[in-house]
Amino acid sequence: xxxxxxxxxxxxxxxxxxxxxxxxxxxxxxxxxxxxxxxxxxxxxxxxxxxxxxxxxxxxxxxxxxxxxxxxxxxxxxxxxxxxxxxxxxxxxxxxxxxxxxxxxxxxxxxxxxxxxxxxxxxxxxxxxxxxxxxxxxxxxxxxxxxxxxxxxxxxxxxxxxxxxxxxxxxxxxxxxxxxxxxxxxxxxxxxxxxxxxxxxxxxxxxxxxxxxxxxxxxxxxxxxxxxxxxxxxxxxxxxxxxxxxxxxxxxxxxxxxxxxxxxxxxxxxxxxxxxxxxxxxxxxxxxxxxxxxxxxxxxxxxxxxxxxxxxxxxxxxxxxxxxxxxxxxxxxxxxxxxxxxxxxxxxxxx
Length: 351
Hints:
Number of strands: 11
Radius of gyration: 26 Å
Structural class: alpha/beta
Order of helices and strands: HHHHHEHEHEHEEHEHEHEHEHEHE
Shape: elongated
Helix content: 40-55%
Distance between the termini: 76 Å
Strand order of the largest sheet: 2-1-3-4-5-11
Number of helices: 14
Largest sheet: 6 strands, parallel
């Protein structure tokens, strides 16, 4: 064999994926023992398990997904299905982080399955199910009667929804209590003397739209405040659209003196529109907004904030899907987190 061929063979060997046989050779153990040690099988001694797992990490061993699927019928994949045109980046990054934290010490891997606004949201779910690409699925932008949830239930696919449905069907979910958020925001604004309130809603058609609108309306009745309709705006619209329509609203004779905003990005546009109309935040009008990252008080200290933890959402959704895969009853894998208090700016240097 000439030297060039030897070099090629060595290069090919260097790029081969380490296998169970590689691990068995390096540890002096049988392939079956190595396989069981990687799975933390209790019949394998703790020291042997540690040694095999250490060597596996050192040589970059990863299970061959196609082989796993052939042997077990599983892909060891969880898919997070996202409309990346609609979701703000803090939501995307935080929920991915939360899911990844949970599955880090499991055999499962996360794949993100994106889709665009021009697609039917059911299409990526159908692809995952029909191609057998994932053992479990997480979806967001949940609707009261969600065809994706119904489709997966009918086919026995473990899944969890970010947000609840209202179909009378049992499935895992994690949700933020948007009814309580909107109601508490109204009460807080009324408590500081605001009586004409406008709501910037989630998109019509999503479940949390109804929760938010109902919480807002019920609390208005409690505190003897009135709504200034702002029905032409939702948080799905562009920053420019929300800004322009807020400025138009604030130039009217009967204008709101308080806003409840369902998303931080919309709040940036609301504040810009208020200032475009020549009014001052905190003097002429107050805004209570949800946020998922500690940014709004850096933008305007006068804003009133309620925090929503998307990282927690990712954590709970991953646990729910893995629980269902592991045989836990879907009805016991449902969580709703209550909002915290409305938070005003506090100068950290004042402590």
